[in-house]
Amino acid sequence: MRILLSSICLFLVWGCASYPKKNNLEARPTKSEYATLNPYFSDTSKDYLYKANLSLYKKEFSGLLIVKKLGAAHHRVAFTTEIGNKIFDLTFIDEDFKVNYILNKMDRKPIINLLKNDFGLLMKERCQIRNTYGLNNDTVYETESQKKKFYYYLSEKGKLKKIVQSNRTKAQLTILFPKVNGEQADRIEVIHQDIDLTISLKAI
Amino acid sequence: MHRFSFYLEGRPAPRLSFPLNKKYGSPAILVFFVLFATLALGQTKMSATESEALKAKVKSLANNTRTITSDFTQYKHLDFLSNDIESSGKLAFRAPDQVKWQYVKPYAYSIVFKNQTLYIDDEGNKSNIDVSGNKLFERLNHLIAASISGDMFDAEQFDMSFFNDSGKSLVHFMPKDPQFSEFISAFHITFNELGEVERVKMIEPSGDFTLIVFSNRKTNQPLSDAHFAQ
Predict the structure, then answer these.
(1) Nearest in space to B72 (alpha carbons), one of B52, B30, B100
(2) pLDDT (tens digit, 9 = 90+) per residue, B181-223?
(3) Which domain of life does the UniProt lineage start with (chain A) (predicted)?
(4) What predicted TM-score, i.e. pTM, was given to this entire model?
(5) Nearest residue of B to residue A104, measured between CA atoms
């Protein structure tokens, strides 16, 4: 009985542990400053084009993701089918967000909130660093926005490898950059931990 | 009308660089500019006789077309991009309504419309979508088949305008059904002198468009089921 109680207590304590603690991140000295953490959509002269594959509860969808940086912290993100029909077209300016177009069938608040969250995070270049951690040779920067915490994993060479969005204790969304060429992310994986949704992007 | 069409064709609309209402405000100047815009466009409205002749020519050709194969280049224009997104591939059509679009560059993706089903091959990942009973899809499939053969002169479905355009025929089809015009506000189809479709431009309500240019077209060559297999 005592062992069972201890196990429950341990589970509760561990369950409530913060994301850095759970993921063995070691605290390092922090300079609380604004920094460019994600450079992958930062070139205004480029049209960013990705073949996109979405898997939502085992259903597969595909299309093209098109991104254009139009100014400082100003991005346009559109999604079309391979044949060219537009599915949605969004504008992100700083913390503002606008739906320029979305298919009637997708014009639902939960879908729009999800697009705003995922693509808003993917487009965000500059953030204020709140805490700094280390994990092996990676440096992990913690940032905060609208009561959510974000962890940017940078390699020894300063390349962004991963972004994790977490609530107080656990990851809700992970964005991986498994293949990077200079400041161009050739492959991007957006993985939701709270719903069965994965978005794979391949630069074309 | 002409200047409006000019704008929709994705070229810059003619702009007057001085104030008309002051020094150059005479109606003659305005007429000159309208005339200039029309000439620059090379586009004139067809007479009723000409448009009837075009319809007859295209319908007769469509009735005698059993198969089409063609290469195509697709340009997706989004106003905010610096360049149109270009893709290319091959098209196969077999009357009455089997269509295969095969994108080769910059990605391998093909889609077959056949027997109330949409067959997709996305870089080797195959899937099908049963669309039987989906009225919108049935109409879309019919429309695609009709726009390839050119025979979509259906006054119940479209408002139509006919133009002569630099020796070619250009028809603007405006869908009447609001369910359809949510996606596409107009199709602009260019026919060559034989009545074959050379270009299809699908314009979205925002003004963004998809332009498909056909080349190397071959008609009535035997196409087996294998051409439409996925």
Answers:
(1) B100
(2) 888 899 999 999 998 999 999 999 999 999 999 999 999 999 9
(3) Bacteria
(4) 0.81
(5) B182
